[in-house]
Design brief:
Keywords: Signal. Helix content is 38%, strand content 18%. It is built from five helices and five strands. The longest helix has 18 residues.
């Protein structure tokens, strides 16, 4: 065998072996796994955030499901994030340490309107309602979290 052919064969085998996990499961199985990661991470972080939000990597790494939890820390006025991993075989959960806004700031994207463009933040929507004479609902600290996170 020529050296080029051997290298090509070796590269093909390597790519095939490393890609097996990513292609071995159905979209439904990955979706179910992402829900498991979300549930387990939220349970493990219970009591750490006032209103936790979570973003789950839909596939994770070869051995772990990965998520980032974030929100306002309970008992403090600061925002923080925590990385969560779930072992794919044992389902064991581990949380990293709290990362303050100075290290990592997570924000959810604003929802899209019918035109496909991001909707304005809630406080701008309320300003428009008040100018049109519509009643304005009371805001809470949680609403303020959503308004500032959405910007």
């Amino acid at each position: 065998m020529k050296t080029t052919t051997r290298l090509t064969l070796a590269a093909s085998l390597l790519i095939g072996l490393t890609g097996v996990n990513a292609h071995a499961s159905s979209p439904e199985a990955w979706s179910e796994f992402a829900k498991t990661v979300e549930t387990k991470c939220l349970e493990a972080a219970e009591g750490l955030f006032r209103k936790p939000r979570i973003v789950v990597d839909p596939i994770g790494s070869e051995k772990y499901g990965i998520a980032v939890l974030f929100g306002r820390s309970k008992g403090a006025k600061t925002r923080a994030s925590i990385i969560c991993i779930v072992d794919k075989q044992t389902q064991a959960v581990e949380l990293g340490s709290e990362l303050g806004e100075d290290k990592l700031r997570m924000r959810m994207p604003r929802p899209l309107g019918p035109d496909g463009k991001p909707l304005p933040p809630k406080n701008q929507q309320q300003d428009a309602q008040s100018q049109s004479g519509a009643s304005q609902p009371e805001t809470t600290d949680e609403d303020e979290d959503e308004n500032t996170d959405a910007q």
